[in-house]
Amino acid sequence: MYSKLSNHISYLITHPKRNKNKFLYFLVSIVLLIFFVPFLEGGIYSSALLNILTTIILLTGVYAVSDTKKQLIIASIFGVPWVIINWSSLFISTVMPGPATISWGVLFFVYTTVVMFLNVIKGSRVTIETLYGAISVYLLIGLTYTSIYALIEIVTPGSFNLINSQGIIHAFKVDELIYYSYTTLTTLGYGDIHPITSHARTFAISEAIIGQLYLTILVARLVGLHISSILNQDK
Questions:
Q1: Which of 55, 66, 148, 171 has its CA 20 to 30 A from that of 113?
Q2: Structural domain boundaries of the chain?
Q3: Considering the entire predicted model, what is its pTM?
Q4: Using one digit for the tens of pLDDT, what is the confidence trace for 72-98?
Q5: What does the DSSP assignment read for 44-102?
Q6: Is the CB of residue 67 less than 8 Å from the CB of residue 112?
Q7: What phi and psi, each to the nearest 5 degrees, are found at residue 98?
């Protein structure tokens, strides 16, 4: 069983053209996390659901960026400790996710974002897989900053004004930081959550800038590829 799985993974790595829908699977896993976030209201069942979703993101993320064995190893090194510690915290009371755990998540998201972005940019033509990858990278930027904000809030509590409907400041929840990250990425900014410390503000500014630059670069690149493919067909 294990040998068959290993052989299958090796085949996908050495035959990247066979690695179909890799960006689609990753995109679906991110969308599932975003839409299931409202149900993560606390308790062991919601924690288990969050861990299941993050594990799916890990597996599909590693699959999406593993065109070579080196990429597979690096993505696994960053992602596996993050998932293992999160699952361990559900069953072992002495194991609690902390800055080190979230740091592994940050590294995993940053690495997958960079690798997928390079794959999209280096493409020679626009395909449906390219579009899946482009959307995945954009959503990945939001998740990357979500993990960064979580790390900042754990290291420096009170970096964000997380106020509930009764106006009471409380500890951050994953759904709130995901919500804040994407409203910042899209420069929507409702203003119900905002950064307090200089570190939090700096990363919020960088996310808004990166979000706009990414869309500008992406559109220019995809339009250029599309025009190039049309010209090549006319020759």
A1: 171
A2: 2-234
A3: 0.83
A4: 999 999 999 888 887 787 777 655 667
A5: HHHHHHHHHHHHHHHHHHHHHH-SSHHHHHHHHHHHHHHHHHHHHHHH-TT----HHHH
A6: no
A7: -130, -165
